[in-house]
Amino acid sequence: MSPRARKSERRTDALSRERIIDAAVELLDAAGEGGLTFRVLTERLATGPGAIYWHVANKGELLDAATEAVVASALAIGPVEPPASPQDGIRAVALGLFDAIDEHPWLAAQLATQLSRSPSRSVTPRILESIGRQVSALGVPVSSQFTAASALMHYILGAAGQNAVNGRAAGPDVDRGEFLDAASKAWKELDPDDYPFTRAVADQMRAHDDRAEFLAGIALILAGITTVHPPTA
Amino acid sequence: MSPRARKSERRTDALSRERIIDAAVELLDAAGEGGLTFRVLTERLATGPGAIYWHVANKGELLDAATEAVVASALAIGPVEPPASPQDGIRAVALGLFDAIDEHPWLAAQLATQLSRSPSRSVTPRILESIGRQVSALGVPVSSQFTAASALMHYILGAAGQNAVNGRAAGPDVDRGEFLDAASKAWKELDPDDYPFTRAVADQMRAHDDRAEFLAGIALILAGITTVHPPTA
DNA sequence: ACCTGAACACCGTTCAAGT
DNA sequence: ACCTGAACACCGTTCAAGT
Fold this sequence. Notes:
Two copies of one chain form a homodimer. By secondary structure, chain A is mainly alpha-helical.
C-alpha cells in the first residue's frame, strides 16, 4: 500500500504529454485551430502554462503531436486484417484518412502545411507506407511505385481537405444541405461567358455524395495506374 | 490644374484596397503567413490600423483577397492562346497553379483551408472552370465531368501544397538539396518492419524532380480518365 | 469619405520560485 | 523532476476624434 508498491496504478490526475495531447485534440475538434489556446488548455487541465511547456516544446509541436495521434489511429483501423485486394487496401486507407479529416476538420490544414515540416517525426511516411504497400502489391514496377503512391496520397489529401471545408463550411451551425444549396445557387449565377463549365455542373455539385465522389476519384487514379502499368499476370 | 481637373491622375501615395492587397502579398511572400501583420502592414504603408480596416473587413478577408489575386494571375497566363490539345490545356493549368504555389508557398494552406469558405468570392470556381473546360473538350460525358475535374483539382492542390512544404521546408535558409538529403536519410533509418516501402523508395524521393513528378501524377489521372471514358471518335 | 492613433482583450512564451 | 503563476512582447480589432 506504500506509494512505491502500487507503482503500476494510474495517477489519473497527473499531467502527462499524452493527457495534454488528448485535451488538445478535444479542443481542436470542438472549435478548430482557433480553439486551441494555452489559456483554455491550462484551464481544462487545471494547471499553469509552465506545466504544459514542461511536457511540450511549443504550440507547433503540440499541433504536430495531435496530428500524429489522430493519423496513427486512423491508419490503424484498416490493416488489422489484410484486404481482399490491393485496390480494397487502397480504398481502406483512403477512407480511413477521409473519415479522420471529416471528424477532425483541422487536420486538413495541418496535413497540407505541416506535412514533412521536419523529415523525422513527420506523418508523411506513415501515410505513404500504407498506400505504398498496396501499390507494390498491385504489381506496379518498383521504379514507378513512388510516383503512383505519391499521386494517390496527394489526391487523398487534396480531396479530403476540400471536403473538410465543405463539411463545416461557415461554422458548425450552418446546415450542410443549406451550404451546398447556397453554393450551387451561387455557381449558377456566375457570368455565363466566364463560367460555362461551372454553371453546367452546379447541379452535380449540389447532388453529389462526398464519399462516393471521393471514391470515384480514387477509381480514376487506380484505372490510370493499371492502364499505365498493366499487371504482368 | 485644379484638383478636380486632374482627377484622372494617379495619387500614388493614396491608400487603396489594391495597394493593401499588394503589400499583403509581398509580406506573405517574404515571411509566410506569420509575416502578415497589421503592425508591419501599417508601417509599410505608413498609416494606422484604422486606415486598413476602412478598406478591408479583417485579416481573413485580406488573406482571401491576396489568394484570389495570386490565383487569378496564375490562371490568366495559360489561356491566352488555346492549347494544342485538352491534355496540354490541363497541364498548362496544373503547372500554372503549381508554379504559383511554388512562388507563394503560403497559398498552399490558404487553398487547402479557405477554399470555398464562402460560396461566393471563392477561388474554387475559377480553378474548376479552367480544368473543367479541358475535361469537357476531352470528350468526357457530361455526367462524369464534375468528378473528373474535381479529381484533377484535388490532386493539383494536394501535390502542389506538399511541394510548397518541401520547397521552403524549415525556413528559407535551408537548402533544398540538403533538406531532401536529410529526409531521404531519415526515411532509410525507419524501422524495417514497419516501413519497408518507404525505405525502399527513399532514393527515388531524393532523386525526383518536383515538376516531372507532378506531371507524372497528372498523366496517371489523365490515363485513368481516358480509360474510363474512352473518346468516342 | 477617409485616415489617425490610443486603447482593449487576447495570444504564445518565459522564468524565477516553489515542492 | 515537475509544477505555479506573474510577467513580457505581440497580436487583431475597435473607436472617438480629426480632416
